[in-house]
């Protein structure tokens, strides 16, 4: 493991770190003959996430999100390299615009871990140049944009200097009133979120600030995520969460109910439950629309309305997310 960045890039080392107490969960999530030790979409997992797996009530659920299996090699009709139409919506190398007067920035290729179901696992990230300059140039000629969404990869994986440069470049454009960050780092690398904290604390004085976390399972939330969310909330950020509905991870009402309640305890409202984006190599995570609708109907009977996420699908070329129920 790289001691500086605290990530595992080698599966045997990661499994050794998890130790014998996780052996049964590993065998359930990825039996030996199904594990892919040299996957096309490379393995990456933070030590922090490994520690969450070790203390999880359902460790195999978290392992399925992170461990590559041979299922990823299956070629399934309808599963493609660009499932959400990022490339046709590209306006500059790192700017994507799908929706009216809002723009999304692919800030970096880097993440705190690589989710096996990632919708951008085949995205041509090598094209990303000097992001701050390019975003600033693009906004110069698009004064109708009022919301900028920082996505990736994970935008908070930018170094503190690069992240500040990017945000300051956006702040120079007075039309932009809302800054949204999509991140999985409160779960994967809370230590890295804290490295940006001085700037994150300042931003609500300039923008309406929204942080949309990506949490799929209640065992991904603990006292460290709570500390990150608490500090952001105290600084004036609106906190929402989006999850992906994933077979073998969160496709039961009990897990979804617990996820919503635990998010709320940490000051975060459930926002979207996404049906799986059909990227190549992720078909084994698919949950049918019928099952998804039944799950939402069930959790509606268990939770107040504000804790029931909207069940949606992203359809390439559509002008908004498509509600399923
Ligand atoms: S954090 Fe997001 S962008 Fe990164 S691998 Fe996971 S789903 Fe993909």
Spatial separation of the terminal alpha carbons: 44 Å
Report the structural category: alpha/beta
- How many helical stretches? 12
**What do we call the CATH homologous superfamily of the largest domain?**
Aldolase class I
What is the count of β-strands?
12
Low-confidence stretches: none
Q: Give, in spatial order, the strands making up the sheet with the most strands.
A: 3-4-5-6-7-8-9-10-11-12
Q: Based on Cα principal axes, name the global outline.
A: globular
Q: Strand content of the residues, in percent?
A: 15-25%
CATH class division of the largest domain: Alpha Beta
Distinct ligands: iron/sulfur cluster
Key traits:
alpha/beta; binds iron/sulfur cluster; 12 helices; single chain; 2 domains; TIM Barrel; two-stranded antiparallel ribbon; 33% helix; 325 residues
Describe the structure.
This protein has 325 residues and is of the alpha/beta class. It folds into 2 domains: 7-73, no CATH class; 90-323, Aldolase class I (TIM Barrel), CATH 3.20.20.70. It is built from 12 helices and 12 strands. It has helices at 11-18, 23-29, 47-55, 59-66, 131-140, 160-171, 185-188, 190-195, 197-202, 223-234, 253-265, 289-300, and strands spanning 7-8, 45-46, 90-92, 95-96, 102-106, 147-151, 178-183, 208-214, 238-244, 269-274, 310-313, 322-323. The strands form 2 sheets. A 10-stranded mixed beta sheet has the order 3-4-5-6-7-8-9-10-11-12. A two-stranded antiparallel sheet has the order 1-2. A hairpin with a 2-residue loop joins strand 3 (90-92) and strand 4. Helix 3 (47-55) packs antiparallel against helix 4 (59-66), helix 5 (131-140) runs parallel beside helix 6 and helix 11 (253-265) crosses helix 12. The protein is globular. Iron/sulfur cluster binds at residues 111, 114-115, 118, 120, 152-154, 184, 214.
């Amino acid at each position: 493991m790289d001691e500086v960045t605290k990530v595992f890039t080698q599966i045997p080392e990661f499994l050794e770190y998890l130790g014998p107490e996780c052996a049964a969960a590993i065998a359930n999530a990825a039996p030996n003959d199904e594990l892919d030790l040299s996957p096309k979409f490379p393995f990456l997992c933070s030590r922090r996430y490994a520690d969450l797996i070790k203390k999880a009530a359902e460790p195999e659920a978290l392992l399925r999100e992170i461990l590559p299996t041979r299922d990823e090699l299956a070629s399934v009709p309808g599963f493609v390299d660009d499932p959400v139409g990022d490339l046709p919506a590209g306006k500059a190398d790192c700017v994507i615009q799908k929706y009216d007067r809002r723009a999304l920035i692919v800030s970096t290729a880097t993440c705190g871990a690589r989710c096996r179901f990632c919708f951008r696992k085949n995205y041509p990230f090598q094209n990303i140049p000097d992001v701050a300059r390019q975003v600033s140039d693009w906004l110069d000629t698009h004064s109708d944009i009022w919301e900028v969404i920082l996505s990736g990869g994970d935008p908070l994986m930018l170094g503190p200097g690069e992240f500040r440069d990017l945000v300051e470049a956006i702040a120079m454009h007075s039309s932009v009133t809302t800054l949204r960050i999509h991140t999985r780092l409160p779960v994967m690398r809370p230590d890295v979120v804290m490295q940006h904290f001085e700037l994150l604390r300042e931003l609500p004085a300039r923008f309406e600030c929204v942080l949309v976390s990506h949490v799929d399972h209640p065992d991904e939330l603990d006292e460290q995520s709570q500390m990150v969310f608490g500090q952001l909330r105290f600084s004036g950020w609106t906190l929402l969460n989006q999850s992906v509905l994933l077979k073998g991870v969160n496709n039961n009402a009990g897990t979804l109910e617990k996820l919503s309640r635990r998010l709320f305890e940490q000051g975060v409202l459930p926002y979207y439950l996404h049906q799986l984006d059909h990227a190549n190599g992720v078909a084994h995570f698919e949950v049918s629309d019928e099952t998804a609708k039944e799950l939402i109907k069930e959790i509606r009977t268990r939770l107040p309305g504000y804790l029931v996420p909207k069940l949606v699908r992203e359809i390439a070329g559509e002008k908004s997310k498509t509600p399923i129920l």
